[in-house]
């Protein structure tokens, strides 16, 4: 059977587009929404370094987004361990977080509608794809 890269890329592009649309509805950039995902998982006061480690974003991108969100009154930073700052949401930021968590609940609902075997297969194939893609990127 021949691989239909066009369909694979179309699916990936559609998923990216849906998340972009969700970010716009929430009032955030894609990067900012990714960062709020991390804050939702690790909690208010999470380390700034988690934002780039968990999202895969560059430190400079995270810093730019943090400064924009601070300027917008969504979050603020406090000293943490060593040079690592802690990220806290303002009351306004908590409202954004609620909207991001609504999206996370939608995702959870979809994944929970799958059987255990379907979730395991999806995760196994996704991990395998990422691992192989990382290795093959060295050939570029």
Describe it.
The protein is mainly alpha-helical and 140 residues long. The protein is 71% helix and 9% strand. It contains six helices and three strands. The chain has helices spanning 5-26, 30-42, 48-55, 59-71, 91-112, 116-136; strands at residues 46-47, 75-79, 85-89. A three-stranded antiparallel sheet has the order 1-3-2. Strand 2 and strand 3 form a beta hairpin. Helix 2 packs across helix 3 (48-55) and helix 2 (30-42) packs across helix 5. The longest helix is centred in the N-terminal third of the chain and has 22 residues, at 5-26. The protein is globular.
Short structural description:
The protein has about 140 residues and is mainly alpha-helical. The protein is built from six helices and three strands, in the order ααβααββαα.
Give the helix/strand layout:
Elements: H1 5-26, H2 30-42, E1 46-47, H3 48-55, H4 59-71, E2 75-79, E3 85-89, H5 91-112, H6 116-136
Antiparallel strand pairs: 1-3, 2-3
Helix pairs in contact: 2-3, 2-5
Amount of helix: over 70%
The number of strands is 3
Relative strand content? 5-15%
Low-confidence stretches: none
Structural class: mainly alpha
- In what order do the strands lie side by side in the largest sheet? 1-3-2
What oligomeric state is this?
single chain
What would the principal axes of the Cα set say about the shape?
globular
Radius of gyration: 17 Å
Average residue-wise pLDDT: 94
The biggest sheet, with number of strands, parallel, antiparallel or mixed sense and barrel status, is: 3 strands, antiparallel
Supply the number of helical segments: 6
Query: What is the CA-CA span between the terminal residues?
Result: 26 Å
């Amino acid at each position: 059977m021949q691989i239909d890269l066009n369909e694979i890329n179309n699916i990936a592009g559609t998923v990216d587009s849906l998340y972009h649309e969700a970010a716009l509805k929430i009032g955030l950039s894609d990067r900012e929404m990714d960062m709020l995902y991390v804050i939702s998982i690790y909690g208010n006061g999470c380390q700034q370094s988690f934002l780039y480690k968990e999202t895969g974003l560059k430190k400079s991108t995270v810093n730019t987004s943090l400064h924009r969100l601070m300027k917008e009154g969504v979050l603020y930073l406090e000293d943490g361990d060593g040079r690592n700052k802690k990220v806290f949401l303002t009351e306004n930021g908590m409202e954004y977080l609620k909207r991001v968590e609504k999206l996370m609940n939608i995702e959870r609902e979809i994944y929970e509608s799958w059987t255990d075997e379907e979730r395991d297969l999806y995760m196994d194939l996704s991990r395998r794809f990422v691992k192989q893609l990382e290795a093959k990127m060295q050939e570029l």
